[in-house]
Amino acid sequence: MVAVEVVDVTDELKSDYDVVVAGGGAAGLSGALMLARARRSVVVIDAGAPRNAPASGVHGLLARDGMPPAELVERGRAEVRGYGGQVVSGEIGAVTREEAGFRVALTDGRTVRARRLLLATGLVDELPEVPGLRSRWGRDVLHCPYCHGWEVRDQAIGVLASGPLSVHQALLFRQWSDDVTLFCHTMPSPSGEEAEQLAARGIRVVDGEVASLEIVDDRLAGVRLNDGTVVKREALAVAPRMVARIGFAEGLGLRPVEHPSGAGEHLPSDATGRTDVPGVWVAGNVTDLTAQVGSAAAAGANAGAQINADLIAEETREAVAARTRGDAPFSAASESRVCEAVLGDRRHGL
Ligand SMILES: Cc1cc2nc3c(=O)[nH]c(=O)nc-3n(C[C@H](O)[C@H](O)[C@H](O)COP(=O)(O)OP(=O)(O)OC[C@H]3O[C@@H](n4cnc5c(N)ncnc54)[C@H](O)[C@@H]3O)c2cc1C
Q: Can you give 239-269 as a three-state secondary structure string?
Protein backbone atom coordinates (compact mmCIF):
# COMPACT_ATOMS: atom_id res chain seq x y z
CA MET A 1 0.00 0.00 0.00
CA VAL A 2 1.26 3.49 -0.83
CA ALA A 3 1.10 6.06 1.99
CA VAL A 4 -0.28 9.37 0.72
CA GLU A 5 0.31 12.54 2.71
CA VAL A 6 -2.72 14.80 2.44
CA VAL A 7 -1.85 18.47 2.83
CA ASP A 8 -4.91 20.56 3.60
CA VAL A 9 -4.45 24.14 2.43
CA THR A 10 -6.90 27.00 2.70
CA ASP A 11 -6.60 30.57 1.47
CA GLU A 12 -7.40 31.93 4.91
CA LEU A 13 -4.52 33.97 6.27
CA LYS A 14 -3.04 32.81 9.56
CA SER A 15 -1.53 35.32 11.97
CA ASP A 16 2.10 34.18 11.80
CA TYR A 17 4.39 32.64 9.21
CA ASP A 18 8.04 31.78 8.96
CA VAL A 19 8.08 33.61 5.65
CA VAL A 20 5.73 35.96 3.81
CA VAL A 21 6.43 36.15 0.09
CA ALA A 22 5.26 39.38 -1.53
CA GLY A 23 4.30 38.72 -5.15
CA GLY A 24 3.38 35.44 -6.83
CA GLY A 25 5.09 35.57 -10.22
CA ALA A 26 7.91 33.25 -11.24
CA ALA A 27 10.28 34.57 -8.56
CA GLY A 28 7.88 34.56 -5.62
CA LEU A 29 6.27 31.19 -6.37
CA SER A 30 9.63 29.55 -6.91
CA GLY A 31 10.91 30.91 -3.58
CA ALA A 32 7.74 29.71 -1.86
CA LEU A 33 8.07 26.24 -3.41
CA MET A 34 11.57 25.93 -1.98
CA LEU A 35 10.41 27.10 1.46
CA ALA A 36 7.29 24.91 1.55
CA ARG A 37 9.40 21.88 0.64
CA ALA A 38 11.73 22.88 3.49
CA ARG A 39 8.69 22.51 5.78
CA ARG A 40 8.49 26.23 6.47
CA SER A 41 5.15 27.91 6.99
CA VAL A 42 4.95 30.21 4.01
CA VAL A 43 2.31 32.36 2.37
CA VAL A 44 2.50 34.08 -1.00
CA ILE A 45 0.43 37.26 -1.13
CA ASP A 46 -0.18 38.16 -4.74
CA ALA A 47 -1.98 40.99 -6.50
CA GLY A 48 -2.33 38.79 -9.60
CA ALA A 49 -0.77 40.99 -12.32
CA PRO A 50 2.45 39.37 -13.56
CA ARG A 51 4.43 41.57 -15.91
CA ASN A 52 4.14 39.30 -18.94
CA ALA A 53 0.34 38.94 -18.67
CA PRO A 54 -0.29 40.64 -22.07
CA ALA A 55 1.92 38.08 -23.89
CA SER A 56 0.37 34.96 -25.42
CA GLY A 57 3.22 32.67 -24.35
CA VAL A 58 6.37 32.46 -22.27
CA HIS A 59 9.31 31.91 -24.59
CA GLY A 60 12.88 30.81 -23.97
CA LEU A 61 11.85 28.77 -20.93
CA LEU A 62 13.22 25.26 -21.09
CA ALA A 63 10.56 22.51 -21.09
CA ARG A 64 7.73 25.10 -20.92
CA ASP A 65 8.41 27.17 -24.05
CA GLY A 66 5.27 28.91 -25.30
CA MET A 67 3.12 28.15 -22.26
CA PRO A 68 0.57 30.93 -21.60
CA PRO A 69 1.76 33.09 -18.65
CA ALA A 70 -1.46 32.50 -16.68
CA GLU A 71 -1.07 28.72 -16.98
CA LEU A 72 2.52 28.85 -15.76
CA VAL A 73 1.45 30.80 -12.67
CA GLU A 74 -1.48 28.43 -12.02
CA ARG A 75 0.83 25.43 -12.15
CA GLY A 76 3.27 27.17 -9.82
CA ARG A 77 0.50 27.97 -7.35
CA ALA A 78 -0.65 24.33 -7.36
CA GLU A 79 2.90 23.13 -6.72
CA VAL A 80 3.33 25.48 -3.74
CA ARG A 81 -0.03 24.40 -2.30
CA GLY A 82 0.90 20.74 -2.84
CA TYR A 83 3.55 21.11 -0.13
CA GLY A 84 1.34 23.01 2.31
CA GLY A 85 2.29 26.56 1.24
CA GLN A 86 -0.50 29.11 0.90
CA VAL A 87 -1.15 31.43 -2.02
CA VAL A 88 -3.51 34.26 -1.13
CA SER A 89 -4.90 37.00 -3.37
CA GLY A 90 -4.28 40.48 -2.02
CA GLU A 91 -2.13 43.55 -2.27
CA ILE A 92 0.48 44.41 0.33
CA GLY A 93 0.24 48.08 1.31
CA ALA A 94 3.01 48.31 3.89
CA VAL A 95 5.63 46.25 5.71
CA THR A 96 7.15 47.35 9.01
CA ARG A 97 9.62 45.87 11.45
CA GLU A 98 8.41 44.35 14.70
CA GLU A 99 10.55 43.11 17.54
CA ALA A 100 10.63 39.50 16.39
CA GLY A 101 10.22 40.02 12.65
CA PHE A 102 7.89 41.92 10.37
CA ARG A 103 4.30 43.05 10.17
CA VAL A 104 2.73 42.87 6.72
CA ALA A 105 -0.39 44.97 6.13
CA LEU A 106 -2.64 44.31 3.15
CA THR A 107 -4.58 47.15 1.54
CA ASP A 108 -7.86 45.42 2.51
CA GLY A 109 -7.00 45.73 6.23
CA ARG A 110 -5.73 42.19 6.88
CA THR A 111 -2.34 41.85 8.63
CA VAL A 112 0.11 38.99 9.15
CA ARG A 113 3.44 38.58 10.89
CA ALA A 114 6.56 37.00 9.40
CA ARG A 115 10.00 36.06 10.63
CA ARG A 116 11.47 36.70 7.18
CA LEU A 117 10.34 38.42 3.99
CA LEU A 118 10.89 37.56 0.35
CA LEU A 119 9.92 40.52 -1.84
CA ALA A 120 9.22 39.49 -5.44
CA THR A 121 6.79 42.14 -6.64
CA GLY A 122 8.37 42.71 -10.05
CA LEU A 123 8.47 46.00 -11.89
CA VAL A 124 6.32 48.44 -13.80
CA ASP A 125 7.08 49.04 -17.48
CA GLU A 126 6.65 52.77 -18.07
CA LEU A 127 5.81 52.90 -21.78
CA PRO A 128 6.50 55.86 -24.05
CA GLU A 129 3.41 58.06 -24.43
CA VAL A 130 2.59 57.47 -28.09
CA PRO A 131 -1.10 57.19 -29.09
CA GLY A 132 -2.01 53.60 -29.94
CA LEU A 133 1.10 52.09 -28.35
CA ARG A 134 -0.18 50.92 -24.97
CA SER A 135 -2.96 48.72 -26.38
CA ARG A 136 -0.43 46.85 -28.57
CA TRP A 137 2.00 46.15 -25.67
CA GLY A 138 3.07 42.51 -25.54
CA ARG A 139 1.48 41.83 -28.95
CA ASP A 140 3.28 43.72 -31.73
CA VAL A 141 4.83 46.38 -29.48
CA LEU A 142 7.71 44.55 -27.82
CA HIS A 143 10.84 45.14 -25.79
CA CYS A 144 12.83 41.91 -25.54
CA PRO A 145 14.21 40.08 -28.59
CA TYR A 146 14.70 36.89 -26.55
CA CYS A 147 10.99 36.87 -25.61
CA HIS A 148 9.56 37.81 -29.02
CA GLY A 149 12.38 37.95 -31.60
CA TRP A 150 11.65 34.53 -33.08
CA GLU A 151 7.94 35.38 -33.44
CA VAL A 152 8.76 38.54 -35.49
CA ARG A 153 11.68 37.09 -37.46
CA ASP A 154 12.05 38.48 -40.99
CA GLN A 155 9.31 41.06 -40.36
CA ALA A 156 9.56 44.84 -40.86
CA ILE A 157 10.68 45.87 -37.38
CA GLY A 158 10.78 49.42 -36.01
CA VAL A 159 12.71 50.44 -32.94
CA LEU A 160 11.37 53.50 -31.14
CA ALA A 161 14.28 55.33 -29.54
CA SER A 162 13.05 55.83 -26.00
CA GLY A 163 16.03 55.15 -23.76
CA PRO A 164 19.81 55.00 -23.50
CA LEU A 165 19.89 51.42 -24.84
CA SER A 166 17.83 51.98 -28.01
CA VAL A 167 20.75 51.76 -30.46
CA HIS A 168 21.83 48.56 -28.74
CA GLN A 169 18.23 47.29 -29.05
CA ALA A 170 18.20 48.06 -32.79
CA LEU A 171 21.49 46.19 -33.24
CA LEU A 172 20.01 43.24 -31.30
CA PHE A 173 16.79 43.03 -33.34
CA ARG A 174 18.93 43.06 -36.50
CA GLN A 175 19.79 39.46 -35.56
CA TRP A 176 16.16 38.49 -36.26
CA SER A 177 15.43 40.62 -39.33
CA ASP A 178 17.39 42.49 -41.98
CA ASP A 179 14.58 45.09 -42.18
CA VAL A 180 15.08 47.22 -39.06
CA THR A 181 14.36 50.96 -38.80
CA LEU A 182 15.34 53.11 -35.83
CA PHE A 183 12.86 55.96 -35.16
CA CYS A 184 14.72 58.73 -33.32
CA HIS A 185 11.42 60.15 -32.00
CA THR A 186 12.41 62.57 -29.19
CA MET A 187 16.05 61.40 -28.97
CA PRO A 188 18.94 62.99 -30.88
CA SER A 189 19.95 61.24 -34.10
CA PRO A 190 22.83 58.79 -33.39
CA SER A 191 26.25 60.12 -34.30
CA GLY A 192 29.86 58.97 -34.35
CA GLU A 193 30.48 55.30 -33.63
CA GLU A 194 26.78 54.51 -33.12
CA ALA A 195 25.81 55.99 -36.49
CA GLU A 196 28.58 53.97 -38.13
CA GLN A 197 27.44 50.74 -36.45
CA LEU A 198 23.83 51.25 -37.56
CA ALA A 199 24.89 52.04 -41.13
CA ALA A 200 27.22 49.04 -41.23
CA ARG A 201 24.38 46.72 -40.16
CA GLY A 202 21.95 48.21 -42.70
CA ILE A 203 19.65 49.74 -40.06
CA ARG A 204 17.72 52.73 -41.39
CA VAL A 205 17.52 55.80 -39.16
CA VAL A 206 14.40 58.00 -39.33
CA ASP A 207 14.54 61.43 -37.65
CA GLY A 208 11.43 63.19 -36.39
CA GLU A 209 8.89 62.64 -33.66
CA VAL A 210 6.46 59.73 -33.90
CA ALA A 211 2.82 60.89 -33.72
CA SER A 212 0.96 57.56 -33.47
CA LEU A 213 0.83 53.93 -34.51
CA GLU A 214 -1.26 52.82 -37.48
CA ILE A 215 -3.41 49.81 -36.60
CA VAL A 216 -5.29 47.91 -39.30
CA ASP A 217 -7.41 44.81 -38.63
CA ASP A 218 -6.07 44.58 -35.10
CA ARG A 219 -2.46 44.50 -36.31
CA LEU A 220 0.32 47.08 -36.35
CA ALA A 221 0.59 48.41 -39.91
CA GLY A 222 2.93 51.36 -39.57
CA VAL A 223 4.44 54.23 -37.64
CA ARG A 224 3.08 57.74 -38.37
CA LEU A 225 5.46 60.65 -37.97
CA ASN A 226 4.46 64.19 -36.97
CA ASP A 227 4.85 65.34 -40.61
CA GLY A 228 2.23 62.76 -41.69
CA THR A 229 4.64 60.26 -43.23
CA VAL A 230 3.71 56.64 -42.49
CA VAL A 231 6.53 54.08 -42.40
CA LYS A 232 5.17 50.54 -42.80
CA ARG A 233 6.14 48.31 -39.84
CA GLU A 234 4.83 44.98 -38.54
CA ALA A 235 6.44 45.12 -35.10
CA LEU A 236 7.78 47.94 -32.95
CA ALA A 237 10.39 47.53 -30.23
CA VAL A 238 10.40 50.05 -27.38
CA ALA A 239 12.57 50.47 -24.30
CA PRO A 240 10.20 51.07 -21.38
CA ARG A 241 11.63 52.62 -18.25
CA MET A 242 11.54 49.73 -15.77
CA VAL A 243 10.72 50.71 -12.20
CA ALA A 244 10.77 48.26 -9.27
CA ARG A 245 7.39 47.88 -7.52
CA ILE A 246 8.59 48.32 -3.96
CA GLY A 247 6.88 51.44 -2.57
CA PHE A 248 5.19 49.34 0.14
CA ALA A 249 8.59 48.59 1.74
CA GLU A 250 9.57 52.21 2.41
CA GLY A 251 8.83 51.69 6.11
CA LEU A 252 11.83 49.32 6.21
CA GLY A 253 14.06 51.92 4.57
CA LEU A 254 14.04 50.00 1.26
CA ARG A 255 13.96 52.37 -1.68
CA PRO A 256 14.72 51.69 -5.33
CA VAL A 257 17.83 53.28 -6.81
CA GLU A 258 18.74 54.18 -10.37
CA HIS A 259 20.07 51.11 -12.23
CA PRO A 260 23.63 51.63 -13.54
CA SER A 261 22.43 50.90 -17.11
CA GLY A 262 20.05 53.88 -17.03
CA ALA A 263 17.18 51.49 -17.84
CA GLY A 264 15.18 52.23 -14.68
CA GLU A 265 15.12 51.75 -10.92
CA HIS A 266 15.77 48.57 -8.96
CA LEU A 267 16.29 47.45 -5.38
CA PRO A 268 19.94 46.39 -4.98
CA SER A 269 20.82 43.08 -3.32
CA ASP A 270 23.75 40.70 -3.10
CA ALA A 271 24.02 37.67 -5.39
CA THR A 272 21.76 35.63 -3.10
CA GLY A 273 19.02 38.29 -3.01
CA ARG A 274 19.86 39.53 0.49
CA THR A 275 19.13 43.24 0.97
CA ASP A 276 20.72 45.73 3.37
CA VAL A 277 17.80 45.14 5.76
CA PRO A 278 18.39 41.99 7.86
CA GLY A 279 15.69 39.39 7.26
CA VAL A 280 14.59 40.76 3.89
CA TRP A 281 15.41 39.11 0.55
CA VAL A 282 14.42 40.13 -2.98
CA ALA A 283 14.18 38.11 -6.21
CA GLY A 284 13.20 38.59 -9.83
CA ASN A 285 12.53 41.84 -11.67
CA VAL A 286 12.28 43.91 -8.50
CA THR A 287 16.06 43.66 -8.19
CA ASP A 288 17.18 42.34 -11.59
CA LEU A 289 15.48 44.43 -14.28
CA THR A 290 16.59 42.14 -17.09
CA ALA A 291 15.58 38.84 -15.46
CA GLN A 292 13.43 36.63 -17.68
CA VAL A 293 11.05 34.04 -16.28
CA GLY A 294 13.74 31.34 -15.97
CA SER A 295 16.24 33.57 -14.19
CA ALA A 296 13.52 35.11 -11.97
CA ALA A 297 12.46 31.60 -10.91
CA ALA A 298 16.08 30.60 -10.27
CA ALA A 299 16.67 33.72 -8.14
CA GLY A 300 13.50 33.01 -6.16
CA ALA A 301 14.57 29.42 -5.49
CA ASN A 302 18.01 30.58 -4.42
CA ALA A 303 16.60 33.23 -2.08
CA GLY A 304 14.18 30.66 -0.62
CA ALA A 305 17.07 28.33 0.21
CA GLN A 306 19.05 31.22 1.74
CA ILE A 307 16.10 32.22 3.91
CA ASN A 308 15.72 28.65 5.13
CA ALA A 309 19.45 28.54 5.97
CA ASP A 310 19.12 31.84 7.84
CA LEU A 311 16.20 30.49 9.88
CA ILE A 312 18.12 27.30 10.64
CA ALA A 313 21.09 29.38 11.85
CA GLU A 314 18.77 31.39 14.14
CA GLU A 315 17.05 28.28 15.49
CA THR A 316 20.40 26.59 16.10
CA ARG A 317 21.70 29.66 17.98
CA GLU A 318 18.57 29.65 20.14
CA ALA A 319 18.85 25.91 20.82
CA VAL A 320 22.50 26.25 21.84
CA ALA A 321 21.66 29.20 24.12
CA ALA A 322 18.80 27.26 25.72
CA ARG A 323 21.03 24.24 26.23
CA THR A 324 23.73 26.38 27.83
CA ARG A 325 21.16 27.95 30.17
CA GLY A 326 19.99 24.47 31.04
CA ASP A 327 16.40 24.91 29.86
CA ALA A 328 16.70 22.74 26.78
CA PRO A 329 14.63 19.55 26.79
CA PHE A 330 16.72 16.52 27.89
CA SER A 331 19.66 18.64 29.15
CA ALA A 332 21.26 17.39 32.41
CA ALA A 333 19.81 20.38 34.26
CA SER A 334 16.26 19.90 32.97
CA GLU A 335 16.36 16.14 33.63
CA SER A 336 17.39 16.91 37.20
CA ARG A 337 14.49 19.41 37.59
CA VAL A 338 11.96 16.89 36.26
CA CYS A 339 13.33 14.20 38.57
CA GLU A 340 13.03 16.52 41.57
CA ALA A 341 9.44 17.46 40.66
CA VAL A 342 8.26 13.89 40.00
CA LEU A 343 10.08 11.85 42.66
CA GLY A 344 11.08 14.41 45.33
CA ASP A 345 12.63 12.62 48.35
CA ARG A 346 11.55 9.21 47.09
CA ARG A 347 14.65 9.43 44.88
CA HIS A 348 17.55 7.21 45.66
CA GLY A 349 20.81 6.80 43.88
CA LEU A 350 23.80 4.59 43.90
C1 LIG B 1 5.14 41.76 -22.67
C2 LIG B 1 6.18 40.91 -21.98
C3 LIG B 1 6.49 39.67 -22.47
C4 LIG B 1 7.44 38.88 -21.85
N5 LIG B 1 7.74 37.66 -22.38
C6 LIG B 1 8.65 36.89 -21.78
C7 LIG B 1 9.01 35.63 -22.35
O8 LIG B 1 8.51 35.24 -23.41
N9 LIG B 1 9.93 34.88 -21.70
C10 LIG B 1 10.51 35.29 -20.54
O11 LIG B 1 11.31 34.54 -19.99
N12 LIG B 1 10.21 36.48 -20.00
C13 LIG B 1 9.29 37.28 -20.57
N14 LIG B 1 9.00 38.50 -20.04
C15 LIG B 1 9.64 38.89 -18.79
C16 LIG B 1 8.84 38.34 -17.59
O17 LIG B 1 7.61 38.99 -17.55
C18 LIG B 1 9.60 38.54 -16.29
O19 LIG B 1 10.86 37.91 -16.39
C20 LIG B 1 8.89 37.90 -15.10
O21 LIG B 1 7.55 38.32 -15.06
C22 LIG B 1 9.59 38.28 -13.79
O23 LIG B 1 8.99 37.57 -12.75
P24 LIG B 1 8.78 38.24 -11.31
O25 LIG B 1 8.27 37.15 -10.46
O26 LIG B 1 10.01 38.96 -10.91
O27 LIG B 1 7.67 39.39 -11.52
P28 LIG B 1 6.15 39.27 -12.00
O29 LIG B 1 5.96 38.10 -12.88
O30 LIG B 1 5.79 40.60 -12.55
O31 LIG B 1 5.35 38.97 -10.67
C32 LIG B 1 5.20 39.94 -9.66
C33 LIG B 1 3.88 39.67 -8.94
O34 LIG B 1 3.84 40.51 -7.78
C35 LIG B 1 2.53 41.06 -7.67
N36 LIG B 1 2.59 42.29 -6.86
C37 LIG B 1 3.12 43.49 -7.18
N38 LIG B 1 2.99 44.35 -6.15
C39 LIG B 1 2.36 43.66 -5.16
C40 LIG B 1 1.95 44.00 -3.84
N41 LIG B 1 2.15 45.23 -3.32
N42 LIG B 1 1.32 43.05 -3.09
C43 LIG B 1 1.12 41.80 -3.59
N44 LIG B 1 1.51 41.44 -4.84
C45 LIG B 1 2.12 42.35 -5.61
C46 LIG B 1 2.11 41.30 -9.12
O47 LIG B 1 0.72 41.44 -9.23
C48 LIG B 1 2.66 40.05 -9.80
O49 LIG B 1 1.73 38.99 -9.77
C50 LIG B 1 8.08 39.34 -20.68
C51 LIG B 1 7.78 40.62 -20.18
C52 LIG B 1 6.84 41.40 -20.83
C53 LIG B 1 6.54 42.77 -20.29
A: CCEEEECCHHHHHHCCCCEECCCCCEEECCC
